Structure formats: structure tokens, C-alpha cells
């Protein structure tokens, strides 16, 4: 240090300058870690780790969220840095292997309910940031993991090694020749970080992703994740960029669709926090996805007119139409008598949930309601199923009747369901 002999006041002044210089140096030394962890927070948000690793009403990342699969229920695990029940003792390599290879502690094979096949392509830089975030920013919570109840033979975890051989591509992300940087970023987000295909891509017989039919629609528990390819009829070619932007940032696209169930969780925890550039990149990539047709003859958002339909008129004059009665008693206060909607209450015409070739999203919405966070606002429709708190519960027959009325009057009239259909969806919602 250079000796400086000066008056006291000058020394104070120098010290102030030096101290502030020092102070600005100090945080800078730590800033690299903080910035890395903050970058990791964004990646964890884009990868939606929170949605699966947090039980309803539970502590963030402490696990216990049930994932209902056709072979049994798997509970996500505690990934807080708690030393005993969490991943506090995971080394960086172990953490990388769990996220990108599906290999947990002591070589334990994870089930692909943890979307490591999508995450396998996450870049090393992003993995470093993710690790820094889980090390330093996530609060440790000691909470024991819940055992899964996967049925034999899927309960033999070592069998996953064979599955991985079939379905795990271990290459990290590389832009493709000729791909713009925006489309490449969108592909990295949609196919890898956001793992949109885990719900929207159909599965093979062995539950692997049917990659030849990527994003062409799949069953997710009681719900249906629709075809989001560029197909003119079955896909989302009729959604404008701003429809998609509204949907991914707020969960609602006027006269197109709204996000309930698992998609509401995606919007609430993940897509609404992405930067506008990242949202645009995802849209740019979705526009490049190969079109895949399915059995639809008309686009699912094209059904319904705004004029009073004959069916409504008939319902109103037919006191025996149970569906219409339930609709006017339980639904019309929000969705309006002609199903045209008002304010935040969406129309049931021009609505992908009522125009689909299956009634899953309609029935699951009636059973569970809608709960979604967008900005300061919460979007809410009451549940009419087992969780109903605010309204009378509807029976399977009631829900079949009201659905059939809605499908005929506002949606795809060729789809009609019975009480057994509702009973099955109810069962799929219960772990
Ligand atoms: C779609 C749901 C889902 C998402 C999203 C998800 N996980 Fe998981 N994760 C699971 C499930 C389920 C398990 C337990 C799998 C098992 O028991 O075989 C798991 C297991 C793990 C494990 C192994 C923990 C242990 O107990 O050994 C780690 C680490 C992990 N996840 C980290 C992450 C990170 C980091 C993210 C975000 C980048 C993430 N997960 C996103 C469902 C998910
Ligand atoms: C956890 C499962 C899941 C994941 C992950 C997921 N989705 Fe969805 N998605 C759904 C379900 C279920 C619906 C139907 C929701 C409804 O109608 O209430 C849906 C609906 C949609 C729709 C509206 C389609 C229509 O016709 O109504 C779009 C667009 C969409 N998702 C895009 C995406 C994108 C892009 C991603 C990745 C960022 C993604 N989804 C990730 C399950 C998922
Ligand atoms: C208290 C007002 C209210 C009542 C009562 C109500 N809804 Fe809703 N409904 C909503 C809101 C709010 C949404 C979600 C809007 C959004 O996502 O932006 C919604 C969404 C929907 C959707 C679209 C779901 C999806 O996944 O795309 C359907 C279908 C629906 N309601 C049907 C019904 C039926 C059938 C009834 C009667 C059994 C009913 N609603 C009663 C407010 C209500």
C-alpha cells in the first residue's frame, strides 16, 4: 500500500472513495456466483422444475407431487439442498447425471416421469448455472420422499437402462445448419428446457416419445394436450402469433383456448416468466414444426356461432333437457346463456376445449375448475367435482348431460359422452 500523508479530512475523503471502490469490488467478486445462480433461476423456471417438485401447498422443491401414469403413481423427490432427505450431498457430476441421464444416487435409475430425455441436451453452461441455483438459492427442507406405487414389471428400475438405450439421446444441443438463431433458441426451449413434448407428443407402446409424431397431441392423465403442430386443421395454424403470445404469457387466447389443468401449471410457473425474446423464439420454432394431421375434419376453434342456436332454443322449451338445466343453473352465470362469454369468462363457442374430437378438457375442467396465476390476477373457475367448495358437486351423469348440451349447442356436436366416460376421467384425476 502506498503511504499517503494528508490532513484528516482529506484522509476521510480518500477513504470514502477507496472504500466505495473496495465496496464495489467486493460484491463483484461474489457477483459472478450471484449472476450464475440468477441465470440458474431463469433456467430452472424455463425448465419448470418447480411444478413437478412441489406438492400442492408444499414447500418449494421439497417433492411429493404425484405424477399419475398408466403404470402407477410416481412422487417427485425432494431436490432442496437438505443433507438427509434432499440432494445436499449430490456432487455436481451426480446432479448433472440425474438431470441429463436419469441416474440418481448410487446409480438408481429414475423413471422418465422426470423428463431427463428432454433435458439431456441442456448445455454444460446452463447445467453449471442450474447447479449454482440449487446449491445457493433454494432453501433446504428436510422432508422424506414418498414411495412410488409403480406396477410390476415397470417397478424394476434397472429395466430403465434398456429404455434409455431406446429413447435417450445424450447429445447436447447444437444449432442445425441453416436454422436461424431465433428458431434454434426456440427449439432449445420447446424441445428441451420447457419439455413441451412430454405432454404434447404421443407415446409409443413402451411409453417413449413417438418422435415421428412430435407435438401432435397426447393424453395427459384426464386431460388432452392438443396437437400444436402447424397442421391447418388438427394443429394451431389458425392461431396468430399474438394468440400464441397471449396464451403462453397469460394462459388465454381469445376465441381460441385457455390453459387449465397441467397447462395452467406450465403458464403459472414457467412460460409467463420468460423474456419476450424467448417467447417469440418459441413461437418462431412452433411455426417450423412439421404439420401432422389427425382425424379432425374441422379446426377445433371453428365451432359455434354467436347467434342463439336451435339447440339452446330447444333446450329452453324442453324442460326435460337436463343438460340445458344444469348449464343454466351452474354455468350460464359466467359463460352466459348463449355460451358467448363475458369479460374474463371465455366463450364456449370457438373454444378448443369444446371443439375438440374428445371431451377430456371439457370434462376435466368441469371436475377440477380452473386456477391460474397471471401477473397480479388469478383466473378462477370453481371445481364441480370432488374438490368443489363453492358450488354444488355434479354427479357423473350431470357432467355427461351438461357436456353433451355444450358440445351440441356450442362445440363439436359429433362428440357425445356418457356417465362412464366421466367416471373414468374422475379416476384419472385421483392418485
Ligand atoms: C415432469 C415432472 C418433473 C420435472 C419438470 C422435473 N422433475 Fe426432477 N423428478 C421428477 C420425478 C417424478 C422424480 C423421481 C423419479 C423417480 O423416482 O424415479 C425426479 C427426480 C429428480 C432428481 C433425483 C432426485 C433424487 O432423489 O435422487 C433430481 C436431481 C431432479 N429430479 C432434478 C430436477 C431438476 C433440476 C429439474 C428442472 C431442471 C427437474 N427435476 C424437473 C419429476 C420432474
Ligand atoms: C404438463 C403437460 C404440458 C406441458 C409440459 C405443456 N403443455 Fe401445452 N397443454 C397441455 C394441456 C393438458 C393442454 C390443454 C389445456 C386446456 O385446454 O385447458 C395444453 C394446451 C396447449 C395449447 C393450446 C392448444 C389448444 O388447442 O387449446 C398450446 C398452444 C400449448 N399447450 C403449447 C405448449 C407449449 C409451447 C409448451 C411448452 C412451453 C407446452 N404447451 C407444454 C399440457 C402441457
Ligand atoms: C364463476 C364463474 C364460472 C362458472 C360458474 C363456470 N365457469 Fe367455466 N370458466 C370460468 C373461467 C374464469 C374460465 C377460465 C378462463 C381463462 O382461462 O381465461 C373458465 C373456463 C371454462 C372452460 C375452458 C377450459 C379449458 O380447459 O379450455 C370450459 C369448457 C368451461 N369453463 C366450462 C364450464 C362449465 C361446463 C360450467 C358449469 C358446469 C362452468 N364452466 C362454470 C368461469 C366460470
What does this structure look like?
Heme c 1 binds at residues 49, 52-53. It is found in: Cell membrane. Heme c 3 binds at residues 331, 334-335. Residues 35-138, 181-290, 318-410 form the Cytochrome c domain. Helices cover 43% and strands 6% of the residues. The chain has 17 helices and eight strands. It has helices at residues 8-46, 49-53, 92-101, 116-119, 124-136, 160-167, 181-193, 197-200, 241-250, 261-269, 276-286, 310-317, 322-335, 352-355, 360-368, 396-409, 419-428, and strands spanning 66-69, 72-75, 218-220, 223-225, 252-253, 257-258, 370-374, 377-381. The strands form four sheets. It has a two-stranded antiparallel ribbon. Strands 3-4 form a two-stranded antiparallel ribbon. The termini are far apart. Residues 1-29 have low confidence and may be disordered. One heme C (HEC) is lined by residues 251-252, 257-258, 260, 330-331, 333-335, 344-346, 348, 353-354, 361-362, 365-366, 370, 379-382, 384, 402, 406. Residues 44, 47-49, 51-53, 67, 74, 76-77, 79, 87, 95, 98-99, 104-105, 110-111, 113-115, 119, 130, 148 line the site of one heme C.
